[in-house]
Amino acid sequence: MSKSVHLWRLHLHPAELSGFANQQGLPPSDVGYHVHAALYALFGKEHAPRPFDWRHLRPHGGGVGTLQILGYAPHEAKAAEAHRQWAEPGIERLLVDDRVESKPLPSLSAGLRLAFELRACPVRRTREGRGSKTHERDVFKLAQVSNPQIQRHEAYLKWLAERLAHANAARLDHAELTGRINQKLLYRRDENRRMNQEPMEHPQIDFAGVLEISDPAAFSDLLLGGVGRHTGFGFGMLRLKPAR
What we know:
- Helix 1 packs across helix 2.
- The protein has 2 domains: 6-104, Alpha-Beta Plaits (2-Layer Sandwich), CATH 3.30.70; 113-242, Alpha-Beta Plaits, CATH 3.30.70.1210.
- It has a 4-stranded antiparallel beta sheet with strand order 2-3-1-4. The chain has a 4-stranded antiparallel beta sheet with strand order 8-9-5-10.
- The relative contact order is 0.20.
- By secondary structure, it is of the alpha+beta class.
- The chain has 6 helices and 10 strands, in the order βααββαββββααββαβ.
- The mean pLDDT is 90.
- Helices cover 25% and strands 34% of the residues.
- It has helices at residues 14-24, 31-43, 81-85, 139-146, 152-165, 216-225; strands at residues 6-12, 52-57, 66-73, 95-104, 113-120, 123-127, 134-138, 170-185, 200-213, 238-242.
């Protein structure tokens, strides 16, 4: 039986978010990390939507605009209301109009074709040698070790197809890369809130395409778990709509 998947939507004030991140001692340039911390502060770790996707919406006439956050959770937004009421003073100022919306996704069925957009971090954890620590490496660079002629888009699309097919969740019909940057990320390593000393470069890849659901229950798990790593920092959310 498929798990219930709810799509959340909320907006954050950029200036309030920046001030919050500064108070938390977060790296100034990593907006995904700022949103991650804000969602945990607002809704708690157990209720915050994850994975999520953030976009900066600017008004047509100019101005600061807002950050729109879309995310998945196994429950509706009302489930987090009690935590919001007990959040630290001032946290509510992060929310635009103190408003959080959610709705359950439509029924999922095998064979259903959906168009998607995805911002992902295609990396794998590897060990350099026996007994060494694990490191994250760009899947394109890993693929070049065995196939020096492989093209970047080929490596990333192969990775995407494998992630969608995990546990027979979905089949990739077709996709393309619509954006690529390398982003340096600092994140806390443990419960003692220690930060990595050196920023680590990660690929940030935007995909767009069409998939076909194979197993609705596994696909629900994929939506809630996200595609790839760093789903708590703005990566891995499949934004879906009916395929044409």
